[in-house]
Amino acid sequence: MKVQMNCDKCRTKALKVAAEADGVDFVGLEGNEKDKVVVIGNGVDAVTLAKSLRKKLGMADIISVADVKK
């Protein structure tokens, strides 16, 4: 997900919101500007997570959703 992050406080908020979502096993930052939140887990609802991020940070876009098989 691409999230609007203007400062370190925004990054911390984004990571906290993503980590509290149901089914999340891993949360990390990616991209040149560290503006992409990577979420890995079982049963994570991308739409609900995007809504939560928008509520806290103002902007969040789902870039991709992938089903990874082990």
Automatic annotation (TrEMBL):
It comes from Rhamnella rubrinervis. InterPro entries: HIPP47/16 (IPR042885), HMA_dom (IPR006121). GO terms for molecular function: metal ion binding. Residues 3-55 form the HMA domain. It comes from the Eukaryota. It holds the Pfam family HMA. Coiled coil: none annotated. Gene3D superfamilies: 3.30.70.100. This is HMA domain-containing protein.
